[in-house]
Amino acid sequence: MALSPKEKKELQQRFEKQLLPDLDLSFELNGEVYKFNFDKNESGDYIDSFTQAVWGGYQDAEEWEKYGKHQEIELPECPGPVEGWCDCDKCKSMFFHKEKNIYVCLSCHKQTEPFLPIDWNSNDYDWLPYEDEY
C-alpha cells in the first residue's frame, strides 16, 4: 500500500524541513561530492539524483512504518536430506538440519559443508569451507 498524494506531500515537506539545516553541507564519497538540492522537475521528483535517492529511502521508511511493509524473514523449511554429498555448485543456499546435525543444500537436498568468504575486503567472491570441518 502506497502513501496517498496528500500523505506524500506532507511527508516531503517534513523531509525538506528536517534536512534544511544540512542544505549547505556536502558529503564526499569515492571522490565525488554530494549536496542536497531541493529543486524538482514537473513530476515532483528531485532533479538531483542524490537528493532523490535520500528522499526515496525516507519515503520507503515511512511506508514501512505506517503500513508494516517490512518483510518478515521466514526461513525455508529444511528438506529431509538425500543420501550423498552435494555436487550441484549451488551450495550457497543451505540450511542446518538440526536432527541430523548437518548442512543440507536447498537445491539438491544433499549434505553440504558450511562456507565462508575468503576475504571480506577483496573482490574475490569464491567461497571456501571452514578449515576445521575437514
Automatic annotation (TrEMBL):
Top-level taxon in the UniProt lineage: Bacteria
Protein name per Swiss-Prot or TrEMBL: Exodeoxyribonuclease V subunit beta
Species whose genome carries this gene: Salmonella infantis
